[in-house]
């Protein structure tokens, strides 16, 4: 039996009735977080061209409702719109061990297909668990650092496979067609890291395309289109093509023990995950020692090697971001707004701050370094280490092993609801936000994913 076939079998065996209560609760928690980010993401600059593109493809009756909009479109296009929107804010969930964002691919595909065929909340939860498991296991098996070094964005590549899994589950494909869906998805998996060169929107597109491609793969498989049955482990398959350091044994290792939704982190700061712990440290030091920006002479930030090229290198570019995307991937920018504004949430990642003289001057005192001391437990832990030296000659140190939002240092349900409200409030009124929270928290009672999606339209 191939790894691909075994993955299909295990995905098909996931049953809501056997899922632990803590895992069911976690799926709801992650879904509400996703919805807040996706709804607010429709207002992002990168979403506007997508909406124009979809405008001429709208469907008056029978189309899938797009969150935060009045638009209804064909299912793969709904997945595209959801994926781009939900990945645009850099506030989407992340799995440290795989260094990728599962929700933007998996949930975008699952909600689009679930709305099309009017799945139940329980079926949606099963599909999400399966999609996360495949996305994350593939990310781990590829070796994230090696995959990044090849120039690939694992959210785009692994997310395509996970999106196909979620869609295939909801479409109730049999095992052979499920394998075909994976095989078809493998020929669409993509995502170039070259967006780092100029801060373009294509990183956000990776999430949209992966969701879109996964839906197309499952729909084609449902009609009898075939794909290679060894797409994961084959000679020219996914693992060998996308990484020189892949380990096929890791795809099935630890499957469901626990399911990867339990290992998923939430972002409290609107930027790359490799910046999150460092920002936590900076905020803690500034508050603990009652420091003001003018007190700071130097900030030394230790960056994990796997993320150094994303947020710290080349230094001259990271010190002079030219766009919001650049800022999302600039550690000096994140450090500066954290010190100056007291947070690094969505409102701080704006062109006004990118162009601010105060922010630019504060960025100059930030030095990014690599430190072997924080590498020892990576990727099981994503430690952060910061030292702030003041003009008075004092140096304060902070190390965090688990950034805020990690399963070991989680946001509470109340904090997730507050995050949802702060994001979705730009699009939905209080009544509909409260209704959405109630529906998600009782997702197992939901008989209509389509109805849920319709309540999220503007």
From TrEMBL:
Residues 7-248 form the MmgE/PrpD N-terminal domain. Gene3D superfamilies: 2-methylcitrate dehydratase PrpD. Residues 269-435 form the MmgE/PrpD C-terminal domain. The lineage of its organism: Bacteria, Pseudomonadati, Thermodesulfobacteriota, Desulfobulbia, Desulfobulbales. This is 2-methylcitrate dehydratase. It comes from the Bacteria. Belongs to the PrpD family. InterPro entries: MmgE/PrpD_sf (IPR036148), MmgE/PrpD_sf_1 (IPR042183), MmgE/PrpD_sf_2 (IPR042188), MmgE_PrpD (IPR005656), MmgE_PrpD_C (IPR045337), MmgE_PrpD_N (IPR045336). It comes from Desulfofustis limnaeus.
């Amino acid at each position: 039996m191939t790894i691909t076939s075994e993955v299909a079998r295990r995905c098909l065996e996931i049953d809501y009735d056997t899922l632990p209560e803590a895992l069911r609760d976690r799926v709801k928690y992650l879904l509400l977080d996703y919805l807040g980010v996706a709804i607010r993401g429709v207002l992002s600059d990168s979403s506007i061209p997508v909406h124009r593109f979809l405008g001429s493809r709208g469907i008056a009756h029978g189309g899938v409702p797009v969150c935060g909009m009045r638009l209804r479109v064909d299912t793969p296009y709904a997945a595209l719109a959801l994926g781009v929107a939900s990945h645009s804010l850099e506030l989407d969930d992340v799995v440290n061990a795989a260094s990728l964002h599962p929700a933007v691919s998996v949930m975008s595909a699952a909600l689009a297909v679930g709305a099309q065929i009017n799945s139940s909340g329980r079926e949606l939860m099963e599909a999400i668990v399966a999609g996360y498991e495949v996305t994350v296991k593939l990310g781990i098996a590829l070796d994230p650092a090696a995959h990044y070094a090849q120039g690939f964005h694992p959210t785009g590549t692994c997310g395509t496979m996970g999106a196909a899994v979620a869609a295939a589950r909801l479409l109730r494909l049999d095992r052979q067609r499920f394998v075909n869906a994976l095989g078809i998805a493998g020929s669409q998996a993509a995502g170039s890291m070259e967006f780092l060169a100029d801060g373009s929107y294509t990183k956000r597109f990776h999430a949209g395309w992966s969701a879109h491609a996964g839906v197309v793969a499952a729909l084609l498989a449902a009609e009898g289109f075939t794909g290679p049955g060894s797409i994961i482990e084959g000679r020219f398959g996914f693992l060998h093509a996308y990484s020189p350091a892949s380990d096929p044994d890791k795809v099935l290792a630890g499957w469901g023990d626990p399911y990867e939704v339990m290992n998923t982190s939430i972002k409290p700061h609107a930027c790359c995950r490799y910046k999150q712990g460092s920002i936590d440290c900076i905020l803690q030091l500034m508050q603990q020692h009652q420091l003001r920006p003018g007190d700071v002479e130097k900030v030394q930030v230790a960056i994990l090697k796997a993320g150094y090229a994303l947020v710290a290198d080349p230094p001259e570019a990271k010190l002079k971001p030219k766009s919001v995307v650049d800022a999302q991937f600039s550690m000096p920018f994140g450090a500066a707004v954290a010190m100056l504004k007291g947070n690094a949430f969505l409102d701080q990642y704006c062109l006004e701050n990118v162009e601010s003289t105060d922010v630019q001057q504060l960025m100059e005192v930030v030095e990014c370094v690599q430190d072997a001391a924080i590498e020892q437990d990576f990727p099981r832990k994503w430690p952060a280490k910061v030292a702030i030296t003041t003009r008075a000659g004092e140096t304060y140190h902070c190390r965090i092993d688990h950034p805020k939002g990690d399963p070991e240092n989680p946001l509470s349900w109340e904090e997730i609801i507050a995050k949802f409200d702060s994001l979705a409030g730009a699009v939905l009124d209080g009544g509909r936000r409260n209704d959405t929270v109630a529906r998600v928290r009782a997702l197992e009672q939901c008989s209509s994913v389509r109805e849920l999606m319709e309540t999220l339209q503007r």
